[in-house]
Specification:
InterPro entries: Pectin_lyas_fold, Pectin_lyase_fold/virulence, Polysaccharide_Lyase_1. By secondary structure, the protein is mainly beta. 7% of the residues lie in helices and 36% in strands. The chain folds into 3 domains: 344 residues, Pectate Lyase C-like (3 Solenoid), CATH 2.160.20; 34 residues, no CATH class; 82 residues, Immunoglobulin-like. It has 3 helices and 37 strands.
């Protein structure tokens, strides 16, 4: 078995980088969930992977802003293989918040992309150009699921296919169960060789006027094909009215050009002669392996579980989730005047306070990277105790001393679901738990590590279950 490097944090707060942070090695985990205080926020320069493999990045906030004075991305990967971005928050980038190029076997899940800087002085364009773009993505295969993209002028997503060594179109992407809110002049567009585009939920905001979810672009008469499976996608107005139903016909048929009415997917062909091959199919091109919901169910789950949440869900991301739910904006671009689509971090008051917090030495007295209260479990065959600990820390959790009580705000685990909700909590072994509406009280009896299951159902009949951990140890 290859040796693994696990990065855990004893200090939480703001990291202001002076150059690009690039991981180019293998078998590395960046565990932002282990930081104390409010966790990790990175400003200044991007964080990315170059030629890396088997890398996992979880619970980081990367908001470069204008600190560097350069036109830069937020996070990304190039030439990397078997890598995972899970529950990170990225935004405030002048170029794009995320990009993936020449990447293989990648997963980008439950992340948060919001507020790319729009009219912000991009060095490759004339002054005043709008460039508030979310993400340009490619991969073979790339899985992009259960992410929230909000308040962007465009590229939410842009399928940035390229060509293989023989000059044929490449890229295979599985884009499903994402939520996109308050898109500007561009929604999802671009082109790749094969794409599954399934169960995505688009919600217009105050800056939105497009009434389609995906525009496939045919701009180059290169060899090969660009083809898509489009199924179960939906679009709603900011007031919640249906524009594109998830059970509707998803493509216009015929030559697949824009029909003049709301449609999920269509083809914008600018080459002559146009491609003679079929563009849209009614079966997927490859297996997804993602637990897939209807778009309306995915909307609720994404808004309940996305972005950097451990050790806390910060005020910035709470605001974005609330604006998505209510179809509103709080701020306006200071240069563009666009509603919700900002041009400078100062438009929203800048980076919130992330006080420097140092973990007490007693947390991990033996220095093995694992809290001394951990019960030693691995989480499954083939994993280490450190793996089990990091995965537990990545889910919602709290701490309490034996004989004491702790309160759990159950509604914080179900932000996207419709009130009133009914909650149930199971699995307590080292204490007792009582539920009163959306609040649970846990009373600890002895030391141990709880793995609770919190189940809930909402007013519309939707239901879900989420894990919740409680560590019981002295002086918690």
């Amino acid at each position: 078995m290859a040796l693994k490097d696990m990065v855990v944090f004893d200090v939480g707060g703001v990291i202001t980088t002076l150059s690009r942070m690039s991981i180019n090695d293998s078998y590395i985990t960046i565990a932002g969930q282990t930081a104390p205080g409010k966790g990790i926020a990175i400003q200044g320069w991007p964080v990315g992977l170059t030629g890396a493999s088997d890398v996992v990045i979880r619970h980081l906030r990367v908001r470069p802003g204008k600190v560097s004075g350069q036109t830069i991305d937020g996070m990304g990967m190039e030439g990397s293989n078997h890598c995972i971005f899970d529950r990170n928050s990225m935004g405030w980038a002048i170029d794009e918040c995320f990009s993936s190029r020449s990447a293989y076997n990648i997963t980008f899940q439950r992340n948060f992309i919001s507020e790319p800087l729009n009219v912000a002085g991009h060095q490759n364009y004339p002054a005043g150009t709008a460039h508030g773009f979310s993400a340009s993505i490619n991969g073979d295969i790339g899985s992009f699921h259960h992410n929230l993209l909000a308040h962007a002028e465009g590229r939410s997503w842009s399928m940035a296919g390229n060509v293989d060594n023989a000059g044929f179109f490449n890229g295979r992407l599985d884009i499903r169960n994402n939520v996109v809110y308050n898109f500007g002049s561009r929604v999802t567009d671009g082109g790749i060789h094969e794409g599954n585009f399934v169960g995505n939920y688009y919600k217009q905001g105050p800056a939105s006027y497009r009434n389609y979810t995906f525009m496939a672009q045919y701009e180059n008469a290169l060899p090969g094909t660009q083809q898509y499976y489009c199924e179960g996608n939906s679009m709603y107005t900011k007031e919640g009215q249906v524009l594109i139903a998830q059970n509707s016909t998803q493509t216009p048929g015929g030559n697949d050009s824009y029909p003049g009415y709301p449609i999920a997917c269509w083809a914008n062909v600018s080459i002559d002669p146009p491609p003679a091959y079929q563009k849209f199919f009614d079966v997927p091109f490859f297996e997804s392996y993602v637990d897939t919901q209807l778009s309306t169910e995915a909307y609720k789950r994404v808004l309940s579980d996305r972005g950097a949440q451990q050790p806390v869900f910060d005020d910035h991301d709470k605001r974005i989730v609330n604006e998505t739910l209510t179809g509103t904006n709080t701020y306006v671009g200071s240069v563009s005047g666009e509603l919700g689509i900002i041009d400078d971090p100062s438009d929203v008051g800048g980076l919130e306070d992330f006080p420097t917090t140092v973990r007490d030495a007693s947390w991990d007295a033996d220095g093995d990277g694992i809290a001394d209260w951990w019960d030693g479990s691995t989480g499954g065959s083939g994993y280490t105790a450190l793996d089990g600990y990091l995965n537990w820390m990545a889910e919602p959790h709290s701490y309490v001393a034996p004989g004491a009580t702790t309160e759990i705000d159950l509604s914080s685990l179900a932000r996207g679901f419709v009130s009133p909700l009914v909650f149930k909590v199971d699995g307590a072994k080292f204490g007792s738990i009582s539920v009163d509406g959306s609040n649970a009280t846990y009373t600890a009896k002895e030391t141990g590590v709880e793995r609770l299951t919190i189940s809930f159902s909402d007013a519309e009949g939707s239901s879900w279950s989420r894990p919740y951990g409680i560590a019981i140890f002295a002086n918690a």
